[in-house]
Each structure stands twice: as C-alpha cells, then as structure tokens.
Design brief:
Length: 599
C-alpha cells in the first residue's frame, strides 16, 4: 500500500499526537471465552451523524469476510458520557447522530480463528488482524490513530507489531490504511533479530519450542532474507527501520501466511518440534518476497485498498504467482532444500496447470479476477472450480518458471527483470498495470520477446514449451503410457463402494462416461472393490489404458450403468536427468548452477 502521509509522520516527534486523532484501547479480561473489550474515541467530528464501520475485507485478501458479524454490545456516548442513539444503515455500518463533536464507543468482539485474516483471543494469545478487530470511522481515515493494548501480565504477554511504539503499550499509526495493515500478536513469544544494512529483521515466535529450537529456526529465516535480498539487490526501506515476522505456530492456529508492508503473519498448527522446523519455512519465503512484490511493487488495481468492497486485480498471476515461483527456488538457493527436492517439487503444480481444462475458459488475467470468489471465500452452492479455475498462485508460478528459463536462453534472467520492475515501480512506489509489465519486459528482453510472452501466455492461455526449456537445465519430463487413468477422485466407503468426491474433469474418461460428483460406484465389471485398497491403486494394478470398464453406480438412490474407456495417465514426472542415469553436459550443468545458485 501507499501511505501518502507517512513521510510527514516520520518527520514528526512521536509526542506530537494532536487532538485530531482516533484513539483505541483493547483489553482481554474474558479471553478464556474469546472476547475482547474495545473502546474508541473520535473527536472534532464535523458531520452531524458519524458513520462507523467494520471492514468487509482485509489487506492481502480479495474476498469479503464481513467482520461485523463478531461485534456486539455496542454503546456510544458523547464527551459528557451521555448515551447516544445508534442506528444501522446496513449490516456493517452503524450511524451515531446527536453527538457534541465527540463520539466514544465501547463494544465486545468475539474472535476465535488465528490466521492471516481473522483474530483469535484466548489464554494463549491475542492474535489480532486489525480489520477483524477494530471499528473505524471512514470520514476520519486520514487522521492519526493510537491504540493501547492492555496486555495480560498474568500470562506474560508481550506485543509484536509493525506499529511504532509511543510509550508503554501504546502504539500509533499515521492513518487508517497503515493501521489496518498492521497485524498485532500479544503472547509470551520469543524474540530474535538481526541487522541487515542498517535495518532490523525480527522474528516474534509464538511456539512452545525451546530457545535452542527458536535460534535454529531463526537461522533459516536469516538465510531466506539474504537470498531474497540478492534477487532484488537490496532490501526495501522499511518505514520504521524494521521488519517483523509474526509467527504463531500453535495447535489452536490455522495454517496461513499474510503479507503486510513491514511485517507478515505466519500461522500453522505445526510447532517447530512437530514438523514445523522444515515445513513452515516455505511460508516465510513466500511472505517476505511480498515485501517487494505486492507491497511496494503494487498493482494499480489494488490502490487504494478498499475496506468496503471486494478487491479485484488482474495482476495476481504476477503478484502472487511469481512470488510463488520464487518461494521454493529461494529455499534451494539458501541451501534449505536440495536441487533434487526443488525440481521434483515442481511436479504437482506443473501437472495441475498443464492438465487443467480451465485454460479453455480463462487466461491468467481472468483467473486473477476470480480471487474474490476463491480467496478464503465461502459459499454454500456447489461450483465447478475443478474445470473452470486454476489458482493464480500456481498459474503464475509455472509462467514465472517458463519466463526465467526462456530469458536464460537469451543470456538474461528473471532476477534481473525483477530488479528492473523493482527500480521502476517498487522503489518508487508507482503502481503498475499489466501493460506496464509488458512494456518493461519489452525494454528488458526486446519487443519481440516481450510481446510474444504476453500475447501467448498472459493475454491468451497457451502453454510454453516446457520440455525444451527443461532440457536447457538438465531436467527431464516423462509420462508412463502404461498407467491407466480413470479421471475421478474416488474414495472407498466402509461398505466397499466408491464415492466420487469432486467434479469429474472435462475430457477425462469418467467425465465422458457421464459420471459426476457424489455418484456411488457399486461395481466394476460386475465385481465390488476389494477390501483395503485405494481406488487409484485398484485401477493401476488391475487395468491398462484402453480397457473398457462396465460401471454400475447409484445417483440419487437410483441404480445406473455406464462404460468408462481408460486412457493413459496424463501427468508428468519431473526430475533431474541424473535420476535417469544421464549426466548433464558441462554447458547444461553451468546453466543449472546459474539458475539455482548452487555448485
């Protein structure tokens, strides 16, 4: 986000908070029942009726989340303490008339989900996503904000936030945009930090680990930070000289990661001693990369962030997808995973995108437009995402991979292109458009190269020649034509029937046979399923491509029959050529080493 008053704010002494500010206080006496008590004061109000709202979405999210549903016991008072009337104009707005220029409110918040979108309050922590926690006055959005976090000293809570400290437990924000972008964790967390080029990188780690485990994990975090700095050539200039990883690895959390301007939220049910030491670091890599790509290299479509409506952007294939491409690549370059593990890890994402029928409906830009429907969004009506949607994270990731390898064939590379994007749009904080990215690639790699990439793979949904690109860095793609493919996700039930758990994929054998989600397969070729075997194993071991299966199934309680003609498994295996007992040439090995930054 861009904060137009931020430089002015930084030039002021922290004691110069004026009367024209919004002040909040939050306490947690009833944390055991997931409640917070919140008060706020809004003064020097010029409008006759003050509008107060809860946000409907959150920075880094694109769907609606309707945080107002967890607010109750709202009361309003004027400067003398007299009660004021409150009316509702819509589900997420409250109107307070008849004030005397000051409105003081109190309310109760219920919060019990710890991730990057919501808040959770219990006796282990107060995990606060600001839009999910604090009511705000839209007409006062440019005013400074102060907030007093009343910690539970009996629980040894400390405060981790990107908000600058005023004194004691009171923090400030220059305006509403920055405040809403500043998640805060109150807990008995461990703190680690190190200095990079005059800036401080912090890890606030809420995890029941030992001090030694915390230090071991922080060494991994440091390696990620330094490897990503190499991509762009420098760290961003963090607004208050520091960046904070707020990591909450506890069983009562929900897995997530959410980027913010000078911090990130990292949540997982995996503690460091329960698999998190290795498995949580990928989120660190992804979210810190966002401090360049999306926080400062910012799509114009997300400026300014709208707290009242869903936020749609056609650039998410780049903002989220290219960040996803670098996520594991950085882990490889940092020595946290092996080149073999990195390359084999490409397989799932590649096959998901390559084999998806959704590309016939939407290109990467249009997939990005779907974010308000899929980004932690919820609905009760069935959808056909299996056939119509490819995650912009995954789609953009495989495009980033292709662009990097294509550029390397030209003696260029994606790192240097990202540096150019950074210097042009990120460091200057000038929001970009898709057309800007196209023009910048033309500048970097030539007009023919840039236009070909965008016209083929961004404005259209064609796929690059991955087989040829992989050969340049000693990677093999292979299919096994002997493995049979059915084309449905089938689980074996307790009564040895097979239930189709999702929409069958367009063009697959099951789809062409008319099978659909929730169909119950009762027999194949007149026989029931054997006990103790998974469906895919049953198909792979018992049948071959081009075999015809006579299927009996139940739909809505009625028995039906159909025939499925099996085909060959469409997925590819992706490996280093050495796994197939082939030695890469010196030229190919050199290209791989330059790409992965390994010897």
């Amino acid at each position: 986000m861009r904060y137009l008053t931020l430089l002015l704010f930084l030039g002021l002494h922290i004691s110069s908070i004026t009367a024209q500010s919004s002040t909040y206080a939050i306490s947690f006496d009833n944390a055991v029942h997931h409640e917070a008590h919140i008060s706020a004061t809004f003064n020097e109000i010029v409008e006759d009726t003050l509008s107060l709202r809860m946000s409907r979405t959150s920075p880094g999210r694109y769907a609606l989340h309707e945080f107002a549903k967890n607010v109750y016991n709202l009361k309003a008072f004027d400067s003398k303490g007299d009660a004021l009337p409150i009316s509702k104009n819509n589900p997420y707005e409250w109107l307070v008339p008849k004030h005397d220029g000051t409105v003081k409110i109190t309310y109760t918040l219920y919060a019990n989900r710890a991730d990057g979108t919501y808040s959770q309050i219990d006796e282990t922590h107060a995990h606060l996503n600001i839009p999910a926690t604090f009511m705000y006055a839209p007409s006062l959005s440019t005013r400074k904000i102060t907030v007093d976090f009343k910690t539970r000293d009996d629980l040894n809570w400390k405060i981790a936030t990107q908000l600058p400290l005023i004194k004691n437990n009171t923090y400030s924000a220059p305006n509403l945009q920055y405040f809403m972008d500043s998640p805060t964790e109150l807990s008995n967390h461990k703190l680690r930090e190190f200095n990079v080029d005059g800036q401080t990188i912090k890890l606030a780690l809420h995890d029941p680990c030992t001090e030694e485990e915390a230090s071991t994990y922080f060494e991994k975090v440091k390696k990620v930070v330094l490897a990503e700095k190499e991509v762009f050539g420098e760290l961003p200039t963090f607004d208050y000289g520091s960046y904070t990883f707020i990591a909450c690895y506890v069983p009562n959390a929900s897995g997530d990661g959410m980027e913010h301007r000078n911090s990130t939220i990292l949540t997982s049910t995996r503690t460091l001693s329960n698999g998190g030491m290795d498995r949580n670091i990928g989120t660190v890599s992804h979210e810190f990369f966002h401090s360049w790509n999306v926080e400062r290299i910012r799509p114009k479509s997300l400026e300014p962030f709208n707290f009242e409506e869903a936020n749609m952007s056609g650039e998410l294939w780049f903002a989220e997808g290219f960040t996803s491409y670098y996520t594991n690549l950085i882990l490889c370059r940092a020595g946290l995973i092996t080149p073999e593990k990195y390359v084999e890890g490409l397989t799932g994402t590649f096959n998901y995108v390559w084999n998806s029928p959704a590309r016939q409906f939407f290109n990467p830009i249009e997939m990005s437009y779907q974010a308000p429907f899929v980004d932690a969004a919820t609905s009760v009506d069935p959808v056909n995402r299996e056939n119509t949607f490819i995650s912009y994270y995954s789609y953009g990731s495989v495009l980033g991979l292709a662009l990097d390898l294509q550029l390397r064939n030209e003696g260029l590379n994606l790192d240097d292109f990202m540096k150019l994007v950074w210097s042009t749009y990120g460091k200057t904080e000038k929001p970009y458009t898709i057309e800007n990215l196209n023009e910048l690639l033309n500048t970097y790699a030539g007009k023919t190269f840039g236009n070909n990439f965008f016209n083929s793979f961004v404005y259209k949904s064609e796929m690059p020649q991955y087989n040829e690109l992989f050969k340049t860095v000693g990677i093999s793609m292979s299919q096994n034509a002997e493995i049979a493919y059915f084309g449905a996700a089938v689980s074996i039930t307790d009564d040895l029937n097979g239930k189709i758990g999702s929409n069958t994929k367009i063009g697959s054998p099951a789809y062409l046979a008319g099978l659909d989600k929730d169909d119950i397969i009762t027999s194949i070729n007149g026989k029931s399923f054997p006990n103790g075997i998974q469906f895919n194993t049953f198909i792979n071991e018992g049948f071959k491509p081009e075999d015809t299966l006579s299927i009996t199934f139940l739909r809505d309680g009625m028995e039906r029959k159909t025939e499925v003609i099996l085909t060959s498994e469409p997925n590819y295996a992706i490996n280093l050529v050495e796994k197939n007992d082939k030695a890469p040439s010196k030229k190919v090995l050199k290209a791989r080493q330059a790409w992965l930054k390994v010897e």
